[in-house]
UniProtKB/TrEMBL annotation:
EC id: 1.2.1.27
Keyword NAD assigned: yes
Domain Aldehyde dehydrogenase: start-end pairs: 27-479
Name of the top EC class for this enzyme: oxidoreductase
Keywords of the record: NAD, Oxidoreductase
GO molecular function: methylmalonate-semialdehyde dehydrogenase (acylating, NAD) activity
Taxonomic lineage: Eukaryota, Sar, Stramenopiles, Oomycota, Saprolegniomycetes
SUPFAM superfamilies membership: ALDH-like
This protein's record includes keyword Oxidoreductase: yes
Pfam families: Aldedh (PF00171)
Protein known as: methylmalonate-semialdehyde dehydrogenase (CoA acylating)
Matching InterPro entries: Ald_DH/histidinol_DH, Ald_DH_C, Ald_DH_CS_CYS, Ald_DH_N, Aldehyde_DH_dom, MeMal-semiAld_DH
Gene3D superfamilies reported in the protein's UniProt record: Aldehyde Dehydrogenase, Chain A, domain 1 (3.40.605.10), Aldehyde Dehydrogenase, Chain A, domain 2 (3.40.309.10)
A Gene Ontology biological process term: thymine catabolic process
């Protein structure tokens, strides 16, 4: 098993995240690193390799070389390795959760839950021998058609900062178990936890070159971030463009998702690129107030609002006064920190600034700030990046906070006259990730679930993540999803494989066995 550099350095909280290539941690050819900052304290906790095209060549070449032997194993053999990996993830879940808290800023229980949820996809991958058996049928008398699922080759997976383990685990176990080699590109903001996980995959028996980590293949990180903010994303990586990379999964912001999807399509590569979100909750007058108020607050403030499934807009049908009071009360009582039930940090200074600007602008535009999270930022200046839960009551649905992704613990509330008005607002969103209706009436639930435009719908559940074996993914053609299929479950199996069809006819007829000389062979 390779020794993870993160392990050596843990005591000093000085992590070095090198690339993980061909079963070894190696420094980047450039010798250059980016600092890693903890959002909890603002302190530098390590450094992450900045890769060059030469490093990428190296990783892709090793993956390509490892592919024939890995894909040549039976799916049962690969699933047996995944079973060992599952056990290692379970055994080290607490340690991994501590790393998630440190590098991402989640509270400890959220971090642990995210590791365990990531391991549920590993569990699903372990059951693939039962699920991808292929099929055989005698399609005409004497002619048999057999279909099997073959791996694609080298899959690159680019992931965001908000779930350092769980999001990589959406793709990696399924891609590996279906016989692909994977090069993971974690967010340069949170590379530590997956660096650790790489050593568990090796310990479980994943051969060198089959799973590799390329930490930050962008020498121009600062430059492209500026471009994204100004909506002019242009640069892309040689990792995605490499001719020996067959397919790419991406999870992150919409501008980059769109960029990656377009580049891959132009090169005839299979691509699935999940983007940002703006999720609407609709509370009907018959909602269970206790259940709804608790769930709404958990949805918008949990993980400091840095979830693509987080509630962002609450549409109150009717006055909704009582429900709003309860939401405000619960949000006001939340505390800051990384303990159970507390609201964790936001990822970095740029994020904190962006979130606060949305609150400032909404207030300047006439929204009422019912719960104000800005004082957390002032109270913690120089000690990490914090924004408290914020509830805005809008009178103008055109406010930016009502329709742009904020990605922080901010809930925009807007009162509507009817369910149809709520649906019209939700349906007009260019995103299409999640939506939820709060009601005690089955018929009302049915009406909304059929008319929401988002792809992942909740009934009295504000974070409606479809768990395994169901597939996770927003609406195709919206800013939440570019590309094909889904990122977990059977949608991911479909993404990671192509269907090989063999049609066979054998001309064995009476007497042919007698004529053939099978002596000594039967
Ligand atoms: P991001 O788009 O800034 O970065 C995502 C990944 O892409 C990172 O690894 C980053 O290094 C890389 N990247 C950034 N710019 C790139 C470029 N020009 N070319 C190639 N790679 C590039 O996103 P983020 O800030 O890390 O994550 C937050 C976003 O992710 C939010 O918009 C959130 O909604 C979204 N997200 C979506 C889902 C989903 O399932 N739809 C899940 C989680 C997060």
């Amino acid at each position: 098993m390779p020794e993870s550099p993160s392990k050596k350095a843990k005591a000093a909280s000085d992590f070095t995240c090198d690339n993980y290539v061909h079963g070894r941690f190696v420094a980047p050819a450039s010798g250059a690193y980016l600092p890693i900052e903890s959002p909890v304290t603002g302190a530098t906790i390590g450094k992450v390799a900045l890769s060059t095209a030469a490093d990428i060549e190296d990783a892709v070449a090793h993956a390509k070389k490892a592919f024939p032997a890995w894909s040549g194993l039976t799916v049962k053999a690969r699933a047996a390795i995944m079973l060992k990996f599952h056990e290692l993830m379970r055994k080290h879940a607490d340690e991994l959760a501590d790393l998630v808290v440190l590098e991402n800023g989640k509270n400890k229980s959220e971090a642990l839950a995210s590791v365990l949820k990531g391991n549920e996809t590993v569990e699903y991958a372990c059951s693939l021998p039962q699920l991808v058996q292929g099929k055989t049928l005698e399609v005409s008398r004497g002619i048999t058609c057999t279909e099997t699922r073959d791996p694609l080759g080298v899959i690159v997976s680019v992931v965001p900062f908000n779930f350092p383990v769980m999001v990589p685990m959406w793709t990696v176990p399924i891609a590996l178990t279906t016989g692909n080699c994977v090069i993971l590109k974690p967010s340069e903001k949170v590379p530590i936890t997956m660096t650790k996980v790489a050593s568990f995959l090796a310990e479980a028996g994943v051969p060198a070159g089959v799973f590799q980590v390329h930490t930050a293949p962008f020498l121009w990180v600062a430059a492209y971030r500026t471009k994204i903010i100004h909506g002019q994303v242009e640069a892309v990586t040689s990792l995605v463009d490499h001719p020996d990379v067959s397919a790419v999964t991406f999870v992150g912001s919409s501008p980059v998702a769109q960029l990656i999807a377009r580049r891959c399509r132009a090169q005839d590569k299979r691509v699935l690129a999940l983007g940002g979100a703006k999720n609407h909750l609709v509370a009907l007058p018959d909602a269970d107030l206790e259940l709804a108020s608790k769930d709404i607050v958990a949805s918008f403030a949990g993980c400091a609002g840095q979830r693509c499934m987080a509630a962002s807009v609450l549409l109150l049908v009717g006055s909704g006064t009582e429900l709003l009071d309860m939401v405000v009360h619960r949000a006001q009582n939340l505390t800051r920190g990384t303990g159970a039930g507390q609201v964790g940090a936001v990822i970095d200074a740029a994020s904190q600034k962006r979130i606060i600007k949305y609150i400032d602008d909404a207030e300047a535009g006439g929204a009422t700030v019912l719960v104000d999270g800005r004082p957390w930022a002032t109270a913690t200046k120089g000690q990490g990046y914090w924004v408290g839960p914020t509830v805005l009551l809008h009178t103008n649905p055109a406010d930016a906070a009502m329709h742009e992704e904020i990605f922080g613990p901010v809930l925009s509330v807007y009162k509507v006259q009817s369910g149809e008005e709520a649906l019209a607002i939700e349906n007009a969103s260019p995103f299409g990730n999640a939506a939820c209706v709060y009601t005690s009436h089955g018929g009302h639930a049915e009406y909304f679930t059929r008319r929401f435009h988002a792809a992942m719908i909740g009934v009295n559940i504000g974070v409606p993540v479809p768990r395994e074996p169901f597939s996770f993914g927003g609406l195709y053609g919206s800013r939440s999803k570019y590309g094909d299929m889904d990122i977990t479950g059977d949608g991911c199996v479909e993404f990671c494989t192509h269907r090989r069809k063999v049609t066979a006819k054998w001309s064995i007829h009476e007497g042919s066995l007698d004529r053939a000389n099978f002596a000594g062979q039967m």
